Amino acid sequence: MANRKVTKLLVVHVTATRPGQDIGVTEVRAMHKAIGWSDIGYNELIRLDGRLEVGRGIEAVGAHVAGFNSIAYGISLVGGLDAQGRPAHTANPAQLATLEQRLRDVSAMYAGAGACGHRDLSPDRNGNGIIEPGEHLKACPCFDVIPWAASKGLPAADIKGNWGEVFSVPAANAAVTTHVAGPDARTVYLQKLLAAAGLQFGPIDGIAGDRTATALRLYQQWNGLQQSGAFDAATVKLLRETFEKAAA
Fold first, then answer.
1. Quick one: which of 202, 207, 171, 163 has its CA closest to 188?
2. What's phi and psi for 153, nearest 5 deg?
3. What is the DSSP letter of 170?
4. Of the listed 8, 89, 138, 152, which one is catalytic?
5. Which residues touch 66 (CB under 8 Å, ≥6 apart)?
6. Per the count of CB atoms within 10 A, which of 21, 62, 156, 165 is most buried?
7. Does domain 185-247 have CATH number 3.10.450?
8. Do residues 134 and 104 touch, judged by C-beta distance below 8 A?
9. pLDDT per residue over 2-60, tens digit each?
10. Which neighbouring-strand residues pair with 80?
11. What letter does residue 197 receive in the DSSP assignment?
12. Which CATH superfamily, name and number, covers 9-164?
């Protein structure tokens, strides 16, 4: 079995099994071989109780994400479906603790490799640089791995998506905080309104970063608002009242 020559991605999966199905590498290997694969597709697997089991092994080229297997390490969480068989974020604290530790260990082995979910590697069909929910080929692993990893101080893949959560992550300098968030439809819309005010802050990308904050403080200063540098309620109200029709 071939080994990877380079590892750029640490891809998180789920086994698409229902609550209580306490399977491991033996069962998943049998499932994968039954569909014609030479071995289990994942490099490692995390059982319901948080135990780690070796699949193909750390160095092996897996069979877990089409088009990326040669550069991707794959680790799967047992679960991913609710009792009705629908995709759901079922990972429990024990599994997530093991996942965090394994990603920390494996990322130390492969400098520059970043964590992501299987669905984050779906094609960008509309070419806007954002992997949106409507473009996901599958739900796996049923949660947003990239912002979760960043919140744990783990390296995350440089992939933009529509995240459901925003995390504040302390940087190496305790006085600085990095806000990790994916492009968000609401923020994209509000950035369009801010641009209509004549302010320049880089691309309208749904990420309220430092340049957007600087532009917001200028807008707030001009209009006698509290200079929060954020899309707070008063600022959003004024932006909408002033520019919404023009942006429609």
1. 207
2. 75, 20
3. E
4. 138
5. none
6. 62
7. no
8. no
9. 999 999 999 999 999 999 999 999 999 999 999 999 999 999 999 999 999 999 999 99
10. 17
11. T
12. Peptidoglycan recognition protein-like (3.40.80.10)
Task: Give catalytic status of residue 116 as yes or no.
Answer: no
Task: Choose the catalytic residue: 64, 73, 116, 140.
Answer: 140
Whether residue 78 contacts residue 23, with contact meaning beta carbons closer than 8 Å, is answered with: yes
Q: Is 8 a catalytic residue?
A: no
- Residue 73 is among the residues annotated as catalytic for this protein: no
Whether pTM > 0.85 for this model: the answer is no
What's the residue count for the chain? 248
Q: Which residues, including other chains, have CB under 8 Å from residue 246's CB and lie 6 or more apart?
A: 196
Q: In whole angstroms, what is the distance from residue 173 CA to residue 9 CA? A: 27
CB 88 within 8 A of CB 132: no
Task: Verify whether residue 13 is a known catalytic residue.
Answer: yes
Give the contacts of 149 (CB within 8 A, at least 6 positions apart).
Answer: 103, 114, 115, 116, 155, 156
Burial call 147-157: b when 16+ CB within 10 Å, e when fewer: bbbbbbebbbb
Encode pLDDT of 81-120 as tens digits: 999 999 999 999 999 999 999 999 999 999 999 999 999 9
Backbone angles phi, psi at 29, to 5 degrees: -60, -45
User: Does the bond joining 141 to the residue before it have cis omega, within 30 degrees of 0?
Assistant: yes
Domain regions of the chain by residue span: 9-164, 185-247
Query: Which amino acid type is present at position 192?
Result: K
* Rounded Cα–Cα distance for residues 18 and 13 (Å): 14
Catalytic residue of the set 32, 64, 73, 118: 118
What gap in Å lies between CA 10 and CA 215, rounded to an integer? Answer: 36
Q: What's the one-letter identity of residue 125?
A: R
Q: Which one of 42, 73, 189, 219 is the catalytic residue?
A: 42
Of 84, 185, 175, the C-alpha closest to 133 is 185
